Model the fold of this input.
Amino acid sequence: MLGIKALPREEIEAIFSLAKSFQEISTREVKKVPALRGKTLINLFFENSTRTRTSFELAAKRLSADVVNFSASSSSLAKGETIIDTVKNLEAYHPDIFVIRVGSSAALYALTQHTEASIVNAGDGRNEHPTQALLDMFTVSQQLGSCEKLKVLIVGDILHSRVARSNMFGFRKFASQIILCGPPSLVPFDCAEEGIRVEYDLDAAVESADVIIMLRVQQERQTSAFFPSLREYSKNYALTPRRLARARKDALVLHPGPVNWDVEIHSSLKWRVHPLILKQAENGLAVRMAVLFSVGTKKRTL
Amino acid sequence: MLGIKALPREEIEAIFSLAKSFQEISTREVKKVPALRGKTLINLFFENSTRTRTSFELAAKRLSADVVNFSASSSSLAKGETIIDTVKNLEAYHPDIFVIRVGSSAALYALTQHTEASIVNAGDGRNEHPTQALLDMFTVSQQLGSCEKLKVLIVGDILHSRVARSNMFGFRKFASQIILCGPPSLVPFDCAEEGIRVEYDLDAAVESADVIIMLRVQQERQTSAFFPSLREYSKNYALTPRRLARARKDALVLHPGPVNWDVEIHSSLKWRVHPLILKQAENGLAVRMAVLFSVGTKKRTL
Amino acid sequence: MLGIKALPREEIEAIFSLAKSFQEISTREVKKVPALRGKTLINLFFENSTRTRTSFELAAKRLSADVVNFSASSSSLAKGETIIDTVKNLEAYHPDIFVIRVGSSAALYALTQHTEASIVNAGDGRNEHPTQALLDMFTVSQQLGSCEKLKVLIVGDILHSRVARSNMFGFRKFASQIILCGPPSLVPFDCAEEGIRVEYDLDAAVESADVIIMLRVQQERQTSAFFPSLREYSKNYALTPRRLARARKDALVLHPGPVNWDVEIHSSLKWRVHPLILKQAENGLAVRMAVLFSVGTKKRTL
Done:
């Protein structure tokens, strides 16, 4: 499996320490190091995501790699080519790194069998989104000193969220406790296992949290049985000033972005929470530079 | 405001003198200078424009900058993200220059408040398109020696044209006189102010002009009340051989391109007018290199 | 005409010998040589093709050229600009190489009259696709030592295939014999001329072939009179284990990709034929590097 689940804690810490040194590059006059000069990265997105792709593209360019964007919707996939044939064909060009977003972890795993290149998982269905969790954890450890023994509350559509899953795997490696909160249809009770608690009442759940991760609501899911009404969702699970007042003063609020203001987070909290959310995006670039650097020289997967 | 209106004449002249030196780079064997090496330019187009984007992209690459194209239609804007949140997120990557096309000048102005990067206006609604005017004026000054004290006739849909506005601001800084010509529905009489004359009869208007700027007809506007009939528009406001014969022999004919032949300009004039229109495109690259170079090292807006 | 037809045999051999030396670059740690540094390549695709464009893009980047992708559908062509005006406008930027895919050879030929840049034909309607044939022939000569005096069987929709045409021109320059096979509606009898034989029975046709080129079925043509039924096509013209057993043991099977498995080639043959088809893609990159290198320094067309 590609993701945080299989990543040893020491490697997470190594990525953080690399990311720390890469953070500085993006503030230089010359925002570029020759670390991956002459390496080829292919951004292979079978599902659209301008933001994640752009972040990887910039990370690669700041390391001097050559980047080719291959959006599968515009390719011959429309002509009936399989995902594996697409990768095999691109493999013929001897890329060094594939950054892949694909609809299922089975598909992603299959792809790893057909390439000598390193693969970075940019989201595999509902399974994992490891660089998002790494940037969340990196942000937390920059703010609080470490990810160790924290109470991490994750709020929203846990059932469908690869961001939630990757963060759950990640924070637990640092002996942090996870509290999951959301409507029962989206937070199955059987999520609860060692290190994970389920809580349906957000007012209660925020109280002890060191970190509050608000998940993005995929509005396209509203029509399904999971989301009977957006208004009711927000009433019960949006972060409001009243709810945030119940939390610890120094609690961190994260969101993978882009925020649907007034759906996940009340817009009157923007001044309070947006700076850290933007810091997440900034850290995302440094974390992705670190990941690309560490997979760019020998075959590895993440 | 970002645009020619706020740009001092001396800065326009400084851009022209830079552009002159950059013209030569594009004719070299090695069409590249390291002027912006390690700088990041984000082409952020909330409205589609392959031509303008390509021109900026190439200008940046010839200065060795890293370029990322961010087309907002394919991004999470579709997911309801605001324009400002998009810029704030990209700002987290510490770009040096944003080249932005957006639907209104209010939106563009708002964006300037959320970035440390330089911003180049690539078209803000009906307001301005400064690099287009700069390349028009640069072309004129290369052909006629200067933009000083000329009679500049602008023909077409003045009401909706950012190209017309930017040129009006620009040429007047050089004591040139502007004559606006087009159907009354598209050339409001109250345009007339110091240095601007309105004329509804193109036959008369061409007679004294040193420079004739033919605006592009946005054919998608035909259905509105402004454009009752394309044929009637052309009959009255297309540049025809008969009309051009009334003009001064050395009158320059410009067009921002692409020309709708037989709509704005009679196709039998192509041999006469197209070379200079293509020269405009060529000069556009040099002018954009000059603009990017001058904003690429410290925060500025244009 | 741009294509293999007009390319002397000596130049084909020169490209092969360049391609051989470029093959090695893509397996290096640093996959990049400065051969075309400071040169500009414009990928100008009036018809969509992610695969061919990506191959040219990577080839150019490995030679250190600057690449701009200009997809004509997203450009102002939608606004009624002609193909020639588009090229003239891009010509103003002094590119060194245009890689062009366009719907007809007349259009491509016309474009050559309006640029000082080298032009590489990436497919001109039904006429030619020269780099595809070069990579096919390069693959054959790497496998069999040369393209000399072979029997080359081409199977499928010959009538509409630029791949077939370019290969026919190419292999005949090396005194190879061409056998065309497919349904009579797609393989006109009058194709037969010196060095070309038409054969409607695939079982018979495979027997003596040294090289079997399976063409891709354009499924969008099924609705036309040419393709009454895909099932019937496959029954008669797909490569099956039984048919391949009739061929010489060392016969090479090529396909321009992507394969519609079970339409052109039975999927149970994948293990046997896919490795060489992927080798074609790999060779395609080296051949395109060779072509770009040889046209990148002085004006030439292919």
Q: What stands out?
A: The interface with chain B takes residues 26-32, 48-51, 54-55, 57-58, 61-62, 219, 257-260, 274, 278-279, 281-282, 284-285 of chain A (CB under 8 Å). The radius of gyration of chain A is 19 Å.
